[in-house]
Amino acid sequence: MWFKQKNSNQQSTPQQVLDELLSNGISLTIDELMRYQNKSSLINLAAAKSLRGKMSGNYLARSKGRGMEFDEVRHYQNGDDIRAIDWRVTARTGKTHTKLFREEVERPVLIATDLSTNMLFGSQLLFKSVQAAHVAALVAWHAKSRGDRIGGVVFNQQQHTELKPRSRQQGVLHYLHALVQCHAASVAISQSPLDHQQAQLAFSQNCTRLRQIAKPGSLVYLLTDAYSLTDDAVRHLSRISQHCELVICLLSDPLEQQLPETSEKITVSVTNGHQRQQLTLGDQALAEKYHQQALQLTDALEQKLTTAGARLLHFCASEALEIQLHRGVASWIR
Fold this sequence. Notes:
- The protein has 2 domains: 14-49 and 106-327, Rossmann fold (3-Layer(aba) Sandwich); 64-102, no CATH class.
- The protein has 10 helices and 11 strands.
- The protein has helices at residues 14-21, 30-34, 87-93, 128-145, 168-189, 196-213, 231-243, 254-257, 284-307, 321-327, and strands at 60-63, 69-75, 97-104, 109-114, 150-155, 160-166, 219-224, 245-252, 266-271, 276-281, 311-316.
- Strand 7 (219-224), helix 7 (231-243) and strand 8 (245-252) form a beta-alpha-beta unit.
């Protein structure tokens, strides 16, 4: 199970929740991400399926046969694999020598976090981008506690930072700082209109980068609202899932799924930061149509991603991450 359940009936105001999260819900700081260092026991990143090319464990183990990394040369012993004989050393010394290899059996954990400006949205508590960063931080800290290496990609529609897997706390801190820097850059460019085609191209390119750095057996997380998902990106994700364990965390906000209920009809002005339109609340027929369209879009999205071999987790921006995990976030889908 990806999470550990815990009952909690305590009610808090949004501001109290934000204070506890060390967050204002809009910008991103290193302090709120460091907070998850002591929360890593909330989840479990143990392998959920057997993968070709994956090796269990979290250490470098010497092997007498063929491995992944050369270690040393020693005298040949009975039982050694003759394919590993070092003929150059054997010819030079006149005695048979064999190569020893070590297998890299720690599991790289790669996290790709989408911080494009479409993620800078939230109607109740946090921006989707902030919640995505919180999920990424929790995954990174838990991976570190298991001895795994942490790397990945942090990106928006204009820039990206690629981080090769690193071990220990250095890998986590490197990733967290990349989150903070990229999020600040996203906020800075959010005043400019979002070019959807550019965002789609950037998303696909970053899926390509993720595929290139994902070695067989890696645990790969993609955190996004999938707003810029394309068929090309799905193909890259499908190739990743063939040799890695691919988990996609879908971020959403309640307003994207259902209109607020009101006792009477109210016309409000809504904006995504660039475009503004009028929306009527309290119209039951309109609200139902809105909700059904959202469900259809979500179903179509899930179908695409599960067909690509991904496992899906849903996270909402309207609740603290811990609350969702305590309650039992929708576990591995299908």
